[in-house]
Amino acid sequence: MPALRTPTLAAPEVHGVRDPDELIPGPFLLATIVRDQPRAARWRDHSHAVAELIWVASGVVNVSVGDTIHVIRPGWGLLVPAHATHGSQVMRAARIGTTYLRDSAATQPTTMRLSRALMEMLQHLNDTPMGTDERLRAQQVCLDMIRGSHAHDAGLPVPSDPRISRIARAILADPADDRSLEQWSVITGTSVSTIARTFSESADMSFVRWRRRVRVNAAVSLLAAGASVTAAGRRVGYHSPSAFVTAFRQEVGQTPGAYLKARTAGCADSGTFCPIRDIATS
């Protein structure tokens, strides 16, 4: 039996989460902060009196809201309702946009695909001095575009049992983690049957399926950043390209190459933000 690895160390905490009421001076409708996070970091659980749109220009951000993890990739955003407790984590360098919305009817966390125009306009508002009337008009256009963004699935459930959520968060931090249920049973002091049952009941899928979904989510971001199929598969835990392609097809319904080709064509045709193009450097 292979030696058990010690649990993954938590990413360093980032402090100084500001009250967005300080960031949205009246009469403005929203405020955006775009930050370059150079290394792994974690924002502890907190909430705001206003809604928050967390969006990603490069890298990957895991946002936890309740018992659900939302994996936010380039070109995507998560709308977090006002007063909803949430925390974020990045495992490597990322460029992250945070847009606070003074008035939002959102009641549930919503993952959405953001248009290229919306992300660049939010970036423009962040960077460019302008008069009050001009800024208000631009902000209203942004709000209309956010409301028109296409909503997607509700995220990846994480078991609430702290012994089992420890397993889930370790895999989210390192999708290549290949420890078996038997190994996790020893580490957590929980029976194999309890771990398997908890994933099935809490996440509505088996442990193997849950880990596969995490790996494919991570691989999509690596492929979008230019990694080869072989390199992306290896980095998320697959030892052969064929095993990775099979897992990817099971989750997405396409091979990695076909998926990227379709997404790139869709970006060109619709003007949607294309993950392969990083607005931070273009």
Automatic annotation (TrEMBL):
GO terms for molecular function: DNA-binding transcription factor activity; sequence-specific DNA binding. Keywords: DNA-binding, Repressor, Transcription, Transcription regulation. Residues 165-262 form the HTH araC/xylS-type domain. InterPro entries: Homeodomain-like_sf, HTH_AraC, HTH_AraC-typ_CS, RmlC-like_jellyroll, RmlC_Cupin_sf. PROSITE patterns: HTH_ARAC_FAMILY_1 (PS00041), HTH_ARAC_FAMILY_2 (PS01124). It comes from the Bacteria. Pfam families: HTH_18. PANTHER family: HTH-TYPE TRANSCRIPTIONAL REGULATOR NIMR. This is HTH-type transcriptional regulator RipA.
